[in-house]
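User: My advisor asked me to double-check a structure prediction for DUF1772 domain-containing protein before group meeting. I don't want to rely on an old file, so could you generate it fresh from this sequence?
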Amino acid sequence: MMDVLRTLALIAATLSMGMVSSVFALYAHTIMPGLKRTDDRTFVGAFQSIDRAIINPWFLGGGFLGALLFGVAAALTQLGRPALPWIVVALVLYVVTFVITIAINVPRNDAIKAAGHPDQIDVAAVRQRFDEARWATFNMVRVLTSVPAFALLIWALVLHGRSSV
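Assistant: Sure, here is a fresh prediction for DUF1772 domain-containing protein from the sequence you gave:
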């Protein structure tokens, strides 16, 4: 029974990390470069809409919070086993990702949403205060921490599989 729990926790950690790292990567290679090419009104309106849409159970539970909670569960169930060091490093990388998100990206997201409807605000000033270059730079840090964390969890699954045989 414990081996099933270990396996499920590690699979859940890996899947949720894959989901969240993919979101950050998608912002880095598609969403932000696409928005960068738009005028201020389009940028503000689109970013507000995207950020409202991302606050959903798939992203929050399945990815963002799930990667942290399932990562902790995977570490706790793998104590003393070969996969543990890889899970711990992945978890540390994801904690960096999580802190950056909460401390840097989310406050900017919240500020741009709180600015008001693009038809009723100075969109150029809102975009400037948002500081998309800073947002994108720290999003790239999230990519550079979460994608390796995902790879480490994949390796932890391999090691877990080998030790369970």
